[in-house]
């Protein structure tokens, strides 16, 4: 990989989430051949493809281009939380987001 920010970010997100390219393909619905081709050719995915890839990590396209911790900044606690998160059902994830949003809103009022 040269200086391709997008591919580096995808690679980092895969590492953080413990995803292989196969799992990324399965979670995103993007064919494995497409993902492999992106890395092999050091090319940029289309916006629709990138949106699908982001969905595998439960992030938006906007989140993708904003600050996400680099692997060096990830703590052991962060990894534990990510592992717990990935074991939740979609309904549980929704409840968790609601709970966290409430915590953040309460903090903002202080």
Q: How would the global form be characterised?
A: globular
How large is the count of helical segments?
A: 7
- The low-pLDDT segments are none
Mean pLDDT: 84
Secondary structure: helix percent: 55-70%
**Major sheet summary line:** none
Encode the helix/strand succession as letters: HHHHHHH
Number of strands: 0
Indicate the structural class. mainly alpha
Account of the 3D structure:
- This protein is mainly α.
- The protein is 69% helix and 0% strand.
- The chain has helices spanning 5-17, 21-28, 32-41, 47-56, 61-64, 76-86, 90-109.
- 11% of the residues are buried.
- The model has no long low-confidence stretch (mean pLDDT 84).
SSE layout:
Elements: H1 5-17, H2 21-28, H3 32-41, H4 47-56, H5 61-64, H6 76-86, H7 90-109
Helix pairs in contact: 2-4
Brief synopsis:
The protein is an all-alpha fold and 110 residues long. Helices cover 69% and strands 0% of the residues.
Task: Name a few traits of the molecule.
69% helix, mainly alpha, 110 residues, 0% strand
């Amino acid at each position: 990989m040269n200086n391709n920010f997008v591919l580096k970010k995808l690679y980092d997100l895969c590492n953080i989430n413990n995803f292989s390219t196969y799992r990324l393909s399965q979670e995103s619905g993007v064919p494995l051949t497409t993902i492999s081709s992106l890395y092999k050719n050091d090319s940029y995915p289309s916006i629709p493809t990138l949106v699908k890839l982001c969905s595998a990590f439960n992030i938006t396209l906007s989140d993708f281009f904003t600050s996400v911790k680099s692997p060096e900044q990830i703590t052991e606690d962060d990894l534990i939380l990510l592992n717990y998160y990935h074991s939740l059902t979609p309904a549980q994830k929704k409840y968790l987001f609601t709970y966290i949003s409430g915590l953040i809103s309460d903090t903002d009022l202080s």
